[in-house]
Amino acid sequence: MLWTDESAHRFMEINYPSFLQMYDSYKYNIQRADSIRYFLLDHFGGIYMDLDIGCRRRMDSLIQGDWEVILPLTKPVSGLFILPDEDANSTGRRFQ
Question: Do 48 and 41 form a contact (C-beta atoms < 8 A)?
């Protein structure tokens, strides 16, 4: 799914209204782009990989594990995040 500035803002309005003021207050668009991925992962679960991350082997064992989050060692620091995909929003987790 492709997220635009407008669809991301609407997503925040509907699903995370208590974070909308913070989201709107970011000075730079890249800050909103960086933050929306965490809210999308919290809501839908799944996998996020930056474009500068590559896999050296299959991710099956990682996906099948009981992981909340996996962060690879990269230079400069970047991330791969795996969250549960079954109704992740019902866990009550919040990003701070």
Answer: yes
When divided into structural domains, the chain yields a total of 2
| Least confidently predicted of 36-40, 41-45, 71-75 | 71-75
Distance CA(67)–CA(60), nearest Å, equals: 12
Tell me: do 31 and 50 sit in the same domain: no
CA distance 64 to 6: 34
For residue 92, being part of any structural domain is answered with no
Cβ–Cβ < 8 Å for 3, 44: no
Amino acid code (one letter) for 69: V
Write out the H or E segment, with its range, that includes residue 46. Answer: strand 46-49
Q: Dump pLDDT digits (tens) for 6-42.
A: 999 999 999 999 999 999 999 999 999 989 999 998 9
Residue 46 identity:
G
Tell me which H or E stretch contains 62: helix 60-64
